[in-house]
Queue: 2 jobs
Job 1
Amino acid sequence: MSMNTRGRPTGAGTPSTLAANGAALLPDEPLLFEIGDTEHSGVDLPDAEISTARLGGFERTAPLDLAGLTEPEAMRHYVRLSRLNHSIDAGFYPLGSCTMKHNPRLNEKMARLPGFADLHPLQPKSTVQGALAVMEELSHWLLTLTNTSAVALTPKAGAHGELLGMMTIKAAQEARGEAHRKIVLVPESAHGTNPATAAFLGYSVKAIPAREDGTVDVAAVREALSPDVAAIMLTNPNTCGLFEPDVVAIAEAVHNAGAFFYCDGANFNAIMGVVRPGDLGIDAMHINLHKTFSTPHGGGGPGAGPVVLSEALAPFAPVPFVRRNADGSLDLVEHAEAQSLERITAFQGQMGMYVRALTYMLSHGGDGLAQAAKDAVLNANYIKARLADVVTVSFPDHHAMHEVLFDDRFFESTGVSTLDFAKALIDEGFHPMTMYFPLVVHGAMLVEPTESESKQTLDAFCDVMRDLANDARDGNTERFSGAPYTAPRRRLDETRAARQPILTWEPDDARAQAAE
């Protein structure tokens, strides 16, 4: 097989979205140290006498050696870097288990309104009544959508919310004299944060195996229950993209054993407005505002993972929370009352995320949120139907929810791996799907289209997936083994880069790079 001028195997299909994405055609971008130098600055500043008396012996003893750049140089550098990144605004993001949906610009406009964007967390409460009203209304709709009794807004992300939910369970059991319960049941298909959270709080984790159809068996849960079990941590819809058919029976079994039901709400996007988790018997559930209600996702935050609580756990909700006074004004309760937990984070949480999430809710309405969930399910099942004859569907007998799980059986004995297949997607302008997760299937490829994507986008993605699948089976391994060929960076040795990171820049171009 020959190679084209950009090092990409010829005959590898037509990259249907490369022209729109464009990132693969951009040149390499040097470091700031390679653009500027340490002898000059982009601005003219007079020499200044700087006293070190206030530095307590921590003053610098060597030059800072930061590269000096002009403002245009700095601006162009960061703009070019941004164009090398993939994003939801640049192209389709089929990342399963980690919803990457469109962030409506209306949300951004509302979050930038004066009175929201310029708030300070230490302002007097009388000056932030509008912000408190946002928190109160957001809480109301989260409780309405889930049919629960209390909500804590302050957790900063899903894992932080899991921690709080399990903390309330631990507090409730200690309050009723059952601190001996030290076991948490976690299905094998759970998000990795679930067992990590339980272990962090001092619990022992007992795995519940998945059935062959990817769901949790209520009989296996009953068998694992004992007087020492504190809770089960179950994701529903689960990480295989399936709704748990026995969820009500599982909740009943857990409650009959004196334990609590923690539901991982990462996939609430698939059922919002359609199913109320409280009706299923859950006691605590975190809701990722970034995944379900379209606040920004990725890049480490800012995130928000509010936790809703059942009537049994509501007394243990942490501060702060909003309370309406007799005169109609809003107050922020900042000190624990009765059994309430203390703070789990500073201040009041991510106000910008509250505004964005509430904007999304109000602009959709209850029927619109339900339609969004149904559209997410429809899109996932459309991809499943279009690819089922060429890509192995892991659980073909179930309708997918918001995401569909494929595996590597369709290219067995071809020499192509799941990693190769995902990297080849980059050459076609698509971000790869989630790879090798969940662990219950070999060579997993988890695809989530979200409700935001059009049929045209889904068809373009499916066309590329079909072309790649056919090439893999036809023995065109060169298309996969070196992919990506057209990205700003070729395939990296991620393991070596993580184990041997280069954290200090040195002006030696001949130096071996750990990741290349």
Job 2
Amino acid sequence: MNSICTTDPYCAELEQIIQQQKLNALFQPIAALNHEQAYGFEGLIRGPSAHFLHSPINLFQTAERCNQLVELDVACRKVIIKAFVERNLPGKLFLNICPTSLIQPSFRPGATLAYLKEVGLDPHRVVIELTETQSTGDYNLLTEALKHYREMGFKIALDDLGEGFSSLRLWSELKPDFVKIDKYFIQGIGSDPQKRQFVRSIQHIALHTGTCVIAEGIETAAELEVIQRIGINLAQGYLIGHPNVQPIAKIKLPTLQTQTPITIDQRSSHAGALLKQIPCASPADSNEAIWRRLSAQTDLIAIPVVENDKPIGLIKRSDLLELFSRPFSRELFGARSCATQMDRNPLIVEQATSLTELARLITSCERGDLNDGFILTEQGRYLGMGTGRDLIRAMTALQISAARHANPLTGLPGNAPIQETIAQLLAEQLNFTVVYVDLDHFKPYNDVYGYARGDELLQYCGHLLQRNTEPQLDFVGHVGGDDFILLLRSPDWQSRCEAILSEFQQHLSAFFSPTHLAENGYQAHNRQGQLQHHPLVSMSLGAAQIIARDYNTHHEVANTACAAKHMAKRQQGNTLFIEQRVTHQANSNHQAMYLNQDIA
């Protein structure tokens, strides 16, 4: 044991806690999003209740000051392993270990394995999760220590990627099986393009290095939806489950049903819809064997090379043809492993990746992925391939479908896709806010300025609504005329509505003459044919938060939105009206409580 610091008043108590193992284990589930069950559990530790050292932060900071970090680390491992076995938890155990404790002279790599054998837990079910609480100095020593763990069957995870001192270098040096993205990059990801790009990049690197990504800190359905769309299938956070002494292995999430096996009919907007079952090759197969197969199957453009269920490369027909067309190349290279000729960096995507995301990945690549095709995986495991031709067809079909039902003036989705989107949100039990957007006094404007100017104002409104909504989460539709619909899942939906009204007020002057602006209106005929003064055009937003379980059809949602719009139009100027409904039971009569907010 290391010499113990005596200046810290908690050192003696800590030593007693370690020796007597007065520690408590909690477990937080890690969800496999395409299955309604836990993939594994992260073991967490707490000190004695109602004690300064109950907090893990205080516990480990004190251990570091008292030179007892290795001893505490070992004690925590034993407590967590024992509790995991006693509670008969399924899946993998993610076991936190400080990297610095692995490179201490007192570190014994076989101690954990010995204890696992004692309690009867297979090391293949254990993931060593490195928590970088301080700078890691000696990468060679750490790599050597982890090598012993790997040889014994353990997997390695890197925690809090994006935070800490050198996590990207650790990823490169240690080649972990899992990386956990720090919760900072997950929270609010739906409304932050930079966070989405960071997570996309991490997922892209992970697929090419055979690493599984775990998104930490998932707290809202909106965050979970973005993560799934990017193609990440492992998630952890309060939405999945809180740390608990006896966690539940069965996980129920509102969006899990969107992660069932994908078919072209069910989820044609995801990469899995393009899946083709292409038998893979092994690194043990020779170039000659691959060529014979390509010669027999003339429709094959490429064959993926897979090792331990994970794709490691792609053999392209064109590359092998070029090689064998050279004099004596077939004799020289035919018997060699096909791995010598494969593309080691093919495009690899998870089947849950959206088609738009896939198209973005392909068009951003400088290589010929559109011609060569791409490899499809599920949690890193090889499924099959997709082709650029099929992607173009699918994207074209989506665009044709969208154009068929789009408003010809603004190009926004019309009534049919609005209704379909509402119905889909209700079916998937996803809560959202519906906002009915209406221009006040628009008919007099058309009469005074003409329909061409009126169309310009409507097109401006369409662009305004799109600019202030999040395309990853929100939906903008054009009912017709001067009526628009927003279906918002962004957490900050109210501030977005306020921004819409503010920007509309600032730019409205461009659509009126100076005289009419000075008079704050103009003379125009009313519906009875009589001249009267009409105010300038204003915008009314009627908003209602929709709890999916309380609605059966899109018609009910439309009625709620219309009622909110009528209340908004009772006020003068640019107005946001928020209807807050109190529901006692599903499909019961609603008791309305109204809040009016004038933004003018």
